[in-house]
Amino acid sequence: MVVAQAVHQLRHSWSCPAEARNVSHVASLGAAHSRVGPLEKTRRSREGLKVRFGARAAVNVDSPNALPIKKRPVAQAKRNQYDITTFTAWLVRQEIEGAIDGELTIVLSSIALACKQIASLVQRAGISNLTGLQGVENIQGEEQKKLDVISNEVFSNCLRSNGRTGIIASEEEDVPVAVEESYSGNYIVVFDPLDGSANIDAAVSTGPIFGIYASDQECLTNLGGDPSVAQNCVVNVCQPGSNLLAAGYCMYSSSVVLVLSIGDGLCAFSLDSLYGEFVLTHEKIQVSTNTKKLYSFNEGRYELWDDKVKRYVDTLKVPDGWTMLYGGIYGYPRDANSSNSKLRLLYECAPMSFLIEQAGGNSSDGQPRILHIQPEEVHQRCPLYFGSPEEVDKVLSFLA
C-alpha cells in the first residue's frame, strides 16, 4: 500500500508543489507506521525518505502490484500550414548534403523554369491558337505540332542561358548541339520537350521528359560547321542509361507535377500557382508491390503485336476482381509496323527506366535491362516494359 501511494504521488509530482508532496508523504508514511512492526517501520521509513527526496529508483515499478507511471507526453512540433519546401530550397539542401554540385543545381533550376513556361503555354493552347500542326516534320518523319516546336525552343533556351550545359539533344532536333554559352559544368541534357503532344488538341495529359549526363570530354568550341564537333557531340550523348546523373518528367494535367530523381530515390513537386514555385509533395516514392491491378498497353495495335505479347496481355484481361488502381505494368512493344517500337531510347526509355528503378520497379526492352543498352545513334528506338518487378518478370517469361 505504501508503494502504491508513493507511485501515486510520483504520477502527480509534475504538477504538485514540493511542499505539498512532502506533507503527503509524511502523512501516508505515518499512517503506515501505526500498522506495522519496528523493523518494517524502519525499512519503509527509509524507502519513504528516498521517495521524498526524489530517488525514483526506490519504487519497484516492475512489481505486479505497482501502478503504472504516467509519462509526461512529449510535445510534438506542429507543422505550420505555410511550412513548405520549395524546389529551390530542396535543391539547396541536396547541394549542402553533397548529393549534387552547384552547377547541376543551376541546370535543374533552369529545367524547372522551362517546365513552368511550357505549362503556361499548354494551359492556354486553345485560347492562343497553339493547337494543330506546325506544317513541318521532325527527323523521324513525324508531323510536328505547334507546341512541339515552341516547347523545344523554350527548353533549349533555358538550358543555353544557364551557362552550365555543354550539350543539348532534343527529340525534335536532327543532331545534338554544343552550347557555345557554357562556362563550366558541361552537362549533357537529353529531352523530349513535350511527350504526348498528339493529345494536345484533346486536352489530355502531356509533358517533357529529360535526362542529365556528365560529359566524357569537353564539347566547348565554336561550331563553325566543323563536322568533328557534331561527331564529338554524338559520341558524348550516346551513353547508356546507367550513366544518368538525374532524370525526370513534368506532367501537365489537373495539376502540374515535376517528378525527379538525382539517383537517391524519387520525389515529386507540385506547382503552386500562388507562389509560382514547385513545392515538395511526395518523397521516396515506391512502386506498389501489389501487382496485377493496372496495365497500360495501346490495345489499338493489338493485331500488330507478336503472339507472345498478345498472350501476355490476354492474361491481364481475365476477370479476377481487380481494383485496377495501383501497381502493374506499362508496355510499348514492337509490332509489325515498328520493328523497334516507337519510343526513343535516349529521350524517353532511359530516363523513365531510371525513374522507375529509383522507385523500386524494373524496366526492360524484352531482353536486357534498359539502362544497360548502349545507344548506337541519338534517335534509336526500342520497346519498353516497366512497372512492378513481379509483373515485368512475368512479361519477360512470356517473351523468352
TrEMBL record:
CDD domains noted in UniProt: FBPase
GO cellular component: cytoplasm; cytosol
Cofactor(s) required, per the database record: Mg(2+)
Catalysed conversion reaction: beta-D-fructose 1,6-bisphosphate + H2O = beta-D-fructose 6-phosphate + phosphate
Molecular function (Gene Ontology), one example: fructose 1,6-bisphosphate 1-phosphatase activity
Domain Fructose-1-6-bisphosphatase class 1 C-terminal residue range list: 291-398
Domain of life: Eukaryota
Magnesium among keywords: yes
SUPFAM superfamilies recorded: Carbohydrate phosphatase (SSF56655)
E.C. designation(s): 3.1.3.11
Keywords for the protein's UniProt record, in alphabetical order: Carbohydrate metabolism, Hydrolase, Magnesium, Metal-binding
GO biological process, one term: fructose 6-phosphate metabolic process
Domain Fructose-1-6-bisphosphatase class I N-terminal stretches: 86-283
Record PANTHER family: FRUCTOSE-1,6-BISPHOSPHATASE-RELATED (PTHR11556), FRUCTOSE-BISPHOSPHATASE (PTHR11556:SF1)
Protein's name in the database: fructose-bisphosphatase
